[in-house]
Write a structure and sequence with these properties.
Strand content: 25-35%
Radius of gyration: 18 Å
Largest sheet: 5 strands, mixed
CATH class of the largest domain: Alpha Beta
Structural class: alpha/beta
Strand order of the largest sheet: 3-2-1-4-5
CATH architecture of the largest domain: 2-Layer Sandwich
Number of helices: 8
CATH superfamily of the largest domain: ATPase, nucleotide binding domain
Distance between the termini: 42 Å
Number of domains: 2
Helix content: 25-40%
Number of strands: 10
CATH topology of the largest domain: Nucleotidyltransferase, domain 5
Length: 234
């Protein structure tokens, strides 16, 4: 089964083609351009270089959150459009779980962290058994001091991955024993890891029709939080 995979949840726009646990092709751009400018040209050039057409793709996977609200909308919207036009099904995976797959095989505790702004991070925790990461914490949006307390309770050598890894490393490296920072090669969002997380998810869940694919924000967008704070309601 060939799977076309996308990640647009942070600054990197990433596309990959995965087949049964093997990466056939992948590409990423982190240049400051918007994902709406880069994602489809990146996808088109990758598929041409790999000699693979959309007709040969069996399923489309996307990182469905948490992450940048604009980035999530672009990624989800792209996948919905591709799937509706080609009558294909899709699967959405947790961004944090996909990040944990970056370090699959490490036999370490893996802590994906993304900068959620407003003095918070999106995070979760996984234990890798040498083959795949197993979830220990659900996805959550918490402050760095809260994350520190949870990591101290876990008492394990822990690998930080994700676009918030350097932020957390700077704050906690002298406060949490056993904390490790992933190398740049495996630190950031990776569309191939989205594919690996999707393949694992498909062992227990059916793929979705494009209309059923939804982003998972974990918290409301800032404008909506401000409106509710003023008592204006939804």
């Amino acid at each position: 089964m060939k799977m076309l995979c996308f990640d647009t949840t942070a600054k990197t726009a990433a596309v990959a083609i995965v087949e049964e646990g093997k990466v056939l092709a992948q590409a990423a751009i982190t240049t400051g351009l918007t994902h709406s400018q880069t994602l489809m040209p990146l996808c088109d050039s990758l598929m041409r270089a790999a000699g693979i057409t959309l007709d040969e793709i069996d399923l489309v996977a996307v990182s469905a959150g948490p992450g940048s609200f604009t980035g999530l909308r672009i990624g989800i919207g792209t996948v919905k459009g591709l799937c509706q036009g080609s009558k294909k099904r899709c699967v959405g995976v947790s961004t944090l779980e996909a990040l944990a797959w970056n370090a699959a095989g490490s036999k370490m505790v893996i802590c994906p962290v993304m900068d959620a702004r407003c003095n918070q991070v999106y995070t979760a925790l996984f234990q890798d058994d040498g083959e795949r990461p197993h979830r220990e914490w659900e996805d959550q949006a918490i402050s760095i001091p809260q994350l520190e307390r949870q990591l101290l309770e876990r008492k394990a050598v822990t690998l930080l991955v994700g676009d918030g890894a350097e932020l957390v490393w700077a704050a906690l490296k002298d406060r949490v024993p056993g904390l490790r920072l992933a190398t740049p090669a495996i630190r950031l969002q990776n569309a191939a890891s989205v594919g690996f997380a999707a393949l694992e998810k498909l062992k227990t869940e059916e793929p979705l029709a494009p209309a059923d694919l939804m982003p998972r924000y974990l918290r409301l967008p800032q404008a909506e939080r401000e409106r509710l704070g003023r008592g204006l309601g939804r």
